[in-house]
Amino acid sequence: MIGILGAGAFGTALAVALAANGPVTLWGRRIDWRGENPRLPGVTMPGAVTVTQDLDAALACDTILLALPAQALGGFLDEHGARLAGRVLVSTAKGIDLAHLTGPSALIAQAAPDAVVAVLTGPSFAADIARGLPTALTLACADAAAGAALQTRLSTPVLRLYRTTDVTGAELGGALKNVIAIAAGVVIGAGLGDSARAAIITRGFAEMTRLATHLGARPETLTGLSGLGDLTLTCTSAGSRNFRFGCAIGSGSAWDSATTVEGAATARALARMALRDGLDLPIAAMVARLAQGDVSVEKAMDRLLARPLKEE
């Protein structure tokens, strides 16, 4: 049986999709809804999905998807990581932990060293998955045989998974694109135009590749679904929370501080990593400052445009 920890929009959407393959247990710390998650209006839970607040029920599953926010995952693992021993654990979080400056897979491996750890990532909106719209994702697992078995288990007629052993590249692609999506949103929100957005996407992708390969990723992974594919989706669609957050910054609009924006925390993590490793990540650094209100949109634009001219 498959267990999913995290009953937010994405965890719920995965439960709906994977119910096509058999029973699913969906756990949430606080579930105050029945039959329909208010984050996914119009989507009814299939009968094969058991929605519960009983963590023991979800932890009884042999394959567990961790659909928790990137900045909440570490705390959950500190409390419950020992109980995940021996399982197949699949992270769906897209971010870099601020406390440790590592991706979710490293946190999971440290908490449950004998578990098989995989990453599920790529261009996807929860609403699309929940409604059964065709979606392609990357499944990354360092253990090729385990990854192949998991690919079969988690694929459905409309959810197509492509396999890789490059966990670092897949995970970083999903995390870093959120930062660039904020920058793209700032450009559009400030009325700077689609040409400027294209420049941000292109130069942002260069930053993503530079950091990911520095940390051991294979460059070709970044050109796949988990990198370029996810970047394209989140930088061009208002369905992306990170993009909308950037638009709010660019237009000077209010943003609900209770709404999680993974890219904002990841930008701060990237700024620290750039200083630590001597990397040039100008867009990520500027997004970190914009998200914290440390610089105006006008000054951020001026500083990026004033950088020395160089070869592409």
TrEMBL record:
Keywords: Cytoplasm, Lipid biosynthesis, Lipid metabolism, NAD, NADP, Nucleotide-binding, Oxidoreductase, Phospholipid biosynthesis, Phospholipid metabolism. Residues 2-145 form the Glycerol-3-phosphate dehydrogenase NAD-dependent N-terminal domain. NAD(+) binds at G6, A7, G8, A9, F10, G11, A126, R241. One of its GO terms (cellular component) is cytosol. GO terms for biological process: carbohydrate metabolic process; glycerol-3-phosphate biosynthetic process; glycerol-3-phosphate catabolic process; glycerophospholipid metabolic process; phospholipid biosynthetic process. One of its GO terms (molecular function) is glycerol-3-phosphate dehydrogenase (NADP+) activity. The active site is at K177 (proton acceptor). Substrate binds at K94, R241, N242. Sn-glycerol 3-phosphate binds at K94, G122, S124, K177, D230, S240, R241, N242. Residues 166-301 form the Glycerol-3-phosphate dehydrogenase NAD-dependent C-terminal domain. Its EC number is 1.1.1.94. It comes from the Bacteria. It is found in: Cytoplasm. NADPH binds at F10, R29, R30, K94, A126, R241, E262. Pathway: Membrane lipid metabolism; glycerophospholipid metabolism. NCBIfam families: PRK00094.1-2 (NF000940), PRK00094.1-4 (NF000942). HAMAP family: NAD_Glyc3P_dehydrog. This is Glycerol-3-phosphate dehydrogenase [NAD(P)+]. It comes from Paracoccus hibiscisoli.
